[in-house]
Amino acid sequence: MKxxxxxxxxxxxxxxxxxxxxxxxxxxxxxAERVGVTQPAASAxxxxxxxHFGDELLVRGKGGYVLSPLATQLAEQVEVVCAAAERxxxxxxxxxxxxxxxxxxxxxxxxxxxxxxxxxxxxxxEKAPHxxxxxxxxxxxxxxxxxxxxxxxxxxxxxxVGRFRIPGLQSTELFRxxxxxxxxxxxxxxxxxxxxLDDLARLxxxxxxxxxxxxxxxxPLSQQLTAFGIRPNVAVRVESYQAVPHLVxxxxxxxxxxxxxxxxxxxxxxxxxxxxxxNPEPIVERFWWHxxxxxxxxxVWLRGALAEAARRADASRSS
Length: 319
Prior knowledge:
By secondary structure, this protein is of the alpha/beta class. It has helices at about 1-10, 15-25, 30-35, 40-55, 70-90, 110-125, 140-145, 145-150, 195-200, 220-225, 245-250, 260-270, 295-319, and strands at about 60, 65, 105-110, 130-135, 155-160, 170-175, 180-185, 205-210, 235-240, 255-260, 270-275, 285-290. The protein contains 13 helices and twelve strands. Helix 10 links the parallel strand 8 and strand 9 (about 235-240). It is globular and about 65 Å long. Belongs to the LysR transcriptional regulatory family.
């Protein structure tokens, strides 16, 4: 333990910020501007980082620098560490959204961005013009290890699942949605606007977040169809909700999709939005955070901002 403390004490933690910006920008001059140092100082920091890791980190390519394999591996880790450090040193401070430059890190699905993104962006522009937002897209591994990840970011937006029963985990409801079926307008395998469970069983599917092994999985499609007694014939698996309608358009495939997202793209992509048989469970999207942030003034403001963005999304939908 003493050796670990001594090693940490000997590190220049300013290098963490420089490493993050070098990886983000892949350019020494722009990284220097982001951090507020001279270009020679940034170059010197890159040299120190290269010596420390025994790796080039930024490698010259045809169009500029590219990340080395190690830098690619470090990219996610340094984002998490810097975000956690910023929250640590912001603890106990007052929070004024009009002048704060705090960065909030949220774990979200791209569906959530489709529903809340515009409204949250406008709200930040109006009320907190210097606050930064880092949206990390959901991956199954992140959600599987939610107890560790929730401590390293400001929170996540997701429907409740069993693995979220963690001591200290708090949540509040943001908005609701429901599952619908989408098919191409010219789908040759489905000539009705009221599909049956038998139709769902025989058609080919586009499935978001569907694991390749094991069934059922935690993926929403798997959970819903398992409740119907159906094991779908999955033709396309994709790590995205927003990609699903593009992979249904012009084909005879079918997909379950959140109604809010389906209605956004149906007209543009030539899709039919159909009632889903079997009375699927409603979608309840909640904001989750660790109780350690309960009294953090900035986090309290963030929770209010997310709630306001959700209200605006509801209002725009009904207008």
